[in-house]
Amino acid sequence: MTVNPNFLRNLPGTDIQISALGLGTVKIGRNEQVKYPSAFTLPDDEVVRTLLSQARELGINLIDTAPAYGSSEERLGNLLENRLDWVIVTKVGEEFSEGKSAFDFSARHTRASVERSLKRLGTDYLDLVLIHSDGNDEDILEHSECVEALHQCKKLGLIRAIGMSTKTVSGGLKAIAALDVVMLTYNLQQQDQAVVTLAHTLGKGVLVKKGLMSGHLHSQHPDRDILRESIELILTTPGIQSMIAGTINPQHLAENVALAKAVLAKKSGNA
Description:
The protein is an alpha/beta fold. The chain has a single domain (5-265), classed as NADP-dependent oxidoreductase domain (TIM Barrel). The protein has 10 helices and 12 strands. The mean pLDDT is 93.
């Protein structure tokens, strides 16, 4: 496996080391009602196994999944090798069935979802569990049973850290104050900067979603090196530890990692 000290970062407030790029796995489990520019077929087991092996060889240890990602959790449970090599992020709150999402933030559903994820992923602990918001971030944090249920799971050793995948800046600010980690939107068109700044101040973790806008940015700006611009923006922003990028294309995976390492090496050299 490629060793690059600039590529591994500590997740603040935890003893978890994560790669600056994480592998998103929507595309290995779900191809219905997704927001990518073009349709795709779910890859077979051999393709996924090879992709996972390539990711580890390139230095990626962070992998992001969710119950709402179709068969993603189950496939990872069958295909991931060497559990201790991976930092697994999954979620609670959203289910996807028969072409549509449903949300449940009750304590009962939260605990059942965690236990199901443990079984599907073939592990006795989850590194990070995020609340998969329906957009009502503040209401979930203030009025649902989900947060307390996750704290209980953490106390039992089922989860190492807890957080929220947010959809609003106001929700992100509340989440980062109450939880260990926030996953937020940060890209060339939208930056939830206030949340990143607060997380940096409080010593909390930040993961970025939609950093490449699911491939839409490139089609809007074909004459710009959108990939490099995006990765440089995200990975050089203080307070951001990692960017989740979902791909099932080995070439794209290699390009993403090469650019990330080049950006981090340049930043280190200028420091």
